[in-house]
Amino acid sequence: MENNFSIYNTLTRTKQLFKPLHEGKVGMYVCGPTVYGDGHLGHARPAITFDVLFRYLRHLGYKVRYVRNITDVGHLEHDADDGEDKIAKKARLEQLEPMEVVQHYLTRYHKAMEALNVLPPSIEPHASGHIIEQIEYIKKILESGYAYISDGSVYFDVPKFNRDHPYGKLSGRNVDELLSNTRELDGQDQKHHPADFALWKKAAPEHIMHWPSPWSEGFPGWHLECSTMGEKYLGESFDIHGGGMDLMFPHHECEIAQSVAHNGHDTVRYWMHNNMITINGKKMGKSLGNFITLDEFFKGTHPLLEQPYSPMTIRFFILQAHYRGTVDFSNEALKASEKALGRMLEGYRRLQELTPSESSTIDVSDIRRKCYEAMDDDMNTPMVIANLFDALRLVNQVKDGHATATQADIDELKTVFDTFLVDILGVRTEMAGDSAEALKPFEGAVELLLDVRAKAKASKDWATSDLIRDRLAALGFTVKDTKDGAEWSLS
Q1: How far apart are CA 491 and CA 489, in angstroms?
Q2: Which has fewest Cβ within 10 Å: 244, 367, 405, 481?
């Protein structure tokens, strides 16, 4: 299958032409959420980024198996090997079973993803559902000599591994640097080296999530689940592994080491990382307590929010930046995205109403090519959006009577928007239900005012005509004069 799709491979730090391992098929694994709280804007970014990748690969004709895991055990508070399990802690505080916590927040996560028009993955495996596979995975790493047992826990031997294979090649770190920068952690006296990480942790008596193993009653290390489930569902080698840039170290670095120790070779061919959402220049995240949940965005209930923002506004906001660039949250930026999305959707609506002419005074022949070039250039969604806005200018010229378009040109424009805006970028073009309902009470009144304005214009009463237009604008209604009469929309 021929394609010109290039992606930035974090491992090689270069853009590379994407060539799947198996002709016509793509295996893709993306790190999903740890479900101990509501999803926030930082969770939306990887979900939307890799949703667009999933959509584009399928559009190019590939059969894609997309695996996105759910972490429901083993993710300790400090992302190292100390502290309490994040889900177990939440369960203890709320006096619930851990899986009640998981189910509650996973249901809410799925609801938020559906609102954002994020397609469900092909497989969504849970870490807790693959304990047996993880135990077997550890056994093979022990057999390879790159792990050791210490007081019922099993640790990966980073210095020993590094003597045979480069540890840190994804993030560019080295073991000596890790040794000098690693602080003392609870329980690190069990480790041979501060950079070693847990494959299996012996559970303390008060730990409520634990399973039997050959080494102790305990639980798997956080990094292990992705190596195990990635191989189970995608094989010893697969095409793409994605996630947030904050997971590059230690999580993904440890995954690489585990997989090489287990199989004797790298598992992933292309590593892709989206950049962070920041708030006042700092990463937005649960651990920093500076996050705004998606539900708060949709309802406008967080103190930092000046208004609610629809799921499609959030999606458009994220897609207006390249996935490898940082995005800083602000009400101003979100309002600008809301306005831009409104223009895009209004233009899409006007496109459906164009009347064809016998000849064209516009040229639409290059738009599709430019959109494909942008997507092929490491998913440059901002450039796709810019090309669509260029196309909307042509739509508006035709709709306003300043240009003409043949049926073939109108069909081409519709195909481009349906392909790139709807199918690939995943933007819903119908007006959000709440907004549509909100407009209904105004429809008759606005239409009446526009009838009065049309009569004023016909009698050359420009003062009354302008007054009606300006008053409507002050109330949030945009009035546009076309060759077929005045149109209005909510700004």
Answers
A1: 6
A2: 481
Q: List the one residue out of 332, 414, 417 whose CA is nearest residue 371.
A: 417
Q: For 110-167, give the DSSP string.
A: HHHHHHTTPPPPSB--BGGGGHHHHHHHHHHHHHHTSEEEETTEEEE-HHHHHHHS-T
In the structure, what pLDDT confidence band is assigned to residue 92 with cuts at 50, 70 and 90?
confident
Render 63-115 in DSSP notation, one character per residue.
Answer: EEEEEE-BB-SS-BTTSSS-S-BHHHHHHHHHT--HHHHHHHHHHHHHHHHHH
What residue type is 464 in one-letter code?
Answer: T
Tens of pLDDT, residue by residue over 263-309, are: 999 999 999 999 999 887 777 766 666 789 999 999 999 999 999 99
What's the pLDDT at 434? 43
64's tokens:
């894609």
Q: CB within 8 A of 61, min separation 6: which ones?
A: 1, 24
Per-position b or e across 449-470, b if 16+ CB within 10 A of its CB:
bbeebeebbeeeeeeebeebbe
Q: How far is 308 from 322, CA to CA, in rounded Å?
A: 24
Neighbour-count burial of 154, counting CB atoms closer than 10 A to its CB (0-12 exposed, 13-18 middle, 19+ buried): buried
Are 228 and 137 contacting, i.e. CB atoms less than 8 angstroms apart? yes
387 and 371 in contact (C-beta within 8 Å)? yes
Mean of the per-residue pLDDT values of the chain: 90
CA distance 148 to 153: 8
CB 9 within 8 A of CB 16: yes
Cα distances (Å, whole numbers) of residue 478 to 125, 146, 158: 48, 66, 62
> What's CA 146's distance to the chain center, in Å?
34
* Residues counted in the chain: 491
Q: pTM score > 0.85 for this model? A: yes
DSSP state of 172: T
Distance CA 148, CA 129 (A): 25
Q: What is the DSSP string of 41-69?
A: HHHHHHHHHHHHHHHHHHHTT-EEEEEE-
Phi and psi at residue 130, in whole multiples of 5°? -130, 35
Distance CA 173, CA 251 (A): 13
Tokens read off for 258: 């585990």
Q: Are 278 and 327 in contact (CB under 8 A)?
A: yes
Question: Among residues 93, 47, 89, which one has the least CA distance to residue 70?
Answer: 47
